[in-house]
Amino acid sequence: MEELLPQCWDDLAATIGAGIDRIILFGPPGTGKTYAALRWQTNERPVERLICTEDLTAADVTGAWLPNGTGGWQWQDGPALRAWRSGGRLVVDEVDRASGDVLSLLLAMADSDGSSQWHHPTTGEVVRPAIGFNVIMTTNLEEMALLPDALRDRFPIAIRINAPHPSAVRSLSDDLKPAAMHGSMGESGRRVSLRKFYAFDQLRRTLGPTRASELLFGAQGGADFIDALRVGAMGRS
Ligand SMILES: Nc1ncnc2c1ncn2[C@@H]1O[C@H](COP(=O)(O)OP(=O)(O)OP(=O)(O)O)[C@@H](O)[C@H]1O
Ligand SMILES: [Mg+2]
């Protein structure tokens, strides 16, 4: 049976199609936010990715002088600056984990194109975002109010990705496809991410379904998962 396209994916396609170039994708883990941000409607321009962690530094965002191997130093642009220069897409994953200096820098790099410029710290070069530059941020936060106001203000559209795209389940065995599209288990409503479905499908080939589900969800969770699959209870709650 052909699955309907979940509304969130339609919203995303329409939003990018309408030329909105600052978008946040939020919601539960493993629904395909990063996958879509890296691959879809990129206009055949380069895509740069930044994964925010507490250890990320400003140099990881805009660039740094690095040893060139012959005793000298060479400037290397970071992903945000590369995306500016190419007019491509900057994907900022787990944006809620960015803090301090990096957050300030992200605010500057995601500002409206007309008011953005970056000064090279030593050469004085001034860089502005090329036409086409766009940013997609992803987060597992459910409340956009938890993001700093200034960041939210730069991203007028936040779309909750609450279901996988049908193309994400194509590689799964047929019996898992409907369950993976719905992604929540029986009455508990517990979410099961795409990654778990991929792993289950792979593991059960050699270990069998019971052992595979136990490894993935623990003894009780594994039994619940098999039950939910058997009675088709995925997504009914
Ligand atoms: N449309 C798709 N086609 C094929 N594989 C997909 C698709 N969407 C997602 N996947 C796969 O599903 C897994 C989860 O996707 P992804 O990492 O994009 O999720 P996410 O929503 O960003 O999760 P998190 O919130 O944990 O970062 C990945 O292995 C990814 O390659
Ligand atoms: Mg992700």
From TrEMBL:
CDD domains: AAA. This is Unannotated protein. PANTHER family: MAGNESIUM-CHELATASE SUBUNIT CHLD, MOXR FAMILY PROTEIN. Residues 19-165 form the AAA+ ATPase domain. InterPro entries: AAA+_ATPase, ATPase_dyneun-rel_AAA, CbbQ/NirQ/NorQ/GpvN, P-loop_NTPase. It comes from freshwater metagenome. SUPFAM superfamilies: P-loop containing nucleoside triphosphate hydrolases (SSF52540). GO terms for molecular function: ATP binding; ATP hydrolysis activity.
